[in-house]
Amino acid sequence: MSAQERRESVIRAAVVEFGRTGYHGTSTEAIARRVGVSQPYLFRLFPGKQALFRAAAERCFERIEAAFERAAEGLEGEAVLDATGKVYAELIRDRDVLLLQMQLYVVAASGEDPELTAFIQQRWVALWDLVRARAGATGAQMAHCFGHGMLINTLVSLGLPADHRCWDGQLDECKVAAAEPVVRAG
Amino acid sequence: MSAQERRESVIRAAVVEFGRTGYHGTSTEAIARRVGVSQPYLFRLFPGKQALFRAAAERCFERIEAAFERAAEGLEGEAVLDATGKVYAELIRDRDVLLLQMQLYVVAASGEDPELTAFIQQRWVALWDLVRARAGATGAQMAHCFGHGMLINTLVSLGLPADHRCWDGQLDECKVAAAEPVVRAG
DNA sequence: CGCGGTAGTTATTGATTACTAACTTAGTGG
DNA sequence: CCACTAAGTTAGTAATCAATAACTACCGCG
């Protein structure tokens, strides 16, 4: 397997592992084991653990961005917001993306790595701007749309089942995401 | 100082440290240093690191719960939801509570400690039920209210300044929370 | 004085961790 | 067949961490 292909599979593994146990809670060995490769070899493919995490973060944002772009295709106005919500519900059936996203927020908040913090901030705001521009939405509309998204993140993180009373008032698509998560091979 | 007082100050330090760097990223030594006590002494006051984290989590929920109770006092219906939002904005000016809250979500999501996961889930749902009962709110109203709360958590975690465009459409009180955080001595 | 309990300490240990150095294996082109 | 390169290994290191063991200093009480 070429180094580039290997790097790709390492990133996928990193998304899963970092998503589950966070930056500090994830050992490079756990990632290597998931890839099926020796731990020291990771350091041939990436300069260090931080770089690994950043690559995983990048992948996470790319996936969300692609989903949002796809949602807005051919639509405009409020329809974009609705479509974004539905696409997001589908996206987070892949539990790994959601978990890593939450990890990114706490990493950004910690401020341990200012460069990484800035990166996460910038990419998140880019998502916001993307939806806002495509939908031509007001601040209140954006808050409503993204507020629901963040609430869903929380409900799923907490592991509340789809028929739990806290899910009342949410899109049915989102409940599906809670009820039938797609567990990826990684 | 009595052991009980010491335990209290340890909990306060744990809230700060765990909030900033998470469960795995926080060493017991960091907590001890903040308290101004030797690291092994923590294990006289608490059986282990997990117990320390749980105590911090408990404190976090107690603070939020108390704030929500206070908000609902003497009000009913939608007024409760408004008051809850305002009180929450004030609450999270204490950055430590917010950061630890985010950490609790990822810890719950990781499922590493099923007992702790169940605890966090239960306490979070209790908050939900508290507000819902006091406000007599519908599912959609609850989603709106808590959705905004979770969005605020995210915006603050990301460190977006109060005048950032992503804050458009939020309560002014929340912007104050972003602009003038109360940094507690811990 | 002396005795016990309470609040604390220093020293240490075994496990884990990110990361390095040096070696091996396998294909490929001449 | 041989040199070169690219992919991957094993072995090891210095540092860190949670937790334990064993000691000390002080306080009130008889």
TrEMBL record, chains A, B:
Keyword Transmembrane on entry: no
Stretches assigned to the HTH tetR-type domain: 4-64
InterPro entries to which the protein is assigned, alphabetical: Homeodomain-like_sf (IPR009057), HTH-type_TetR-like_transc_reg (IPR050109), HTH_TetR (IPR001647)
Entries under Pfam families matching the protein: TetR_N
PROSITE patterns: HTH_TETR_2
Portion annotated as DNA-binding: 27-46
Protein's name in the database: TetR/AcrR family transcriptional regulator
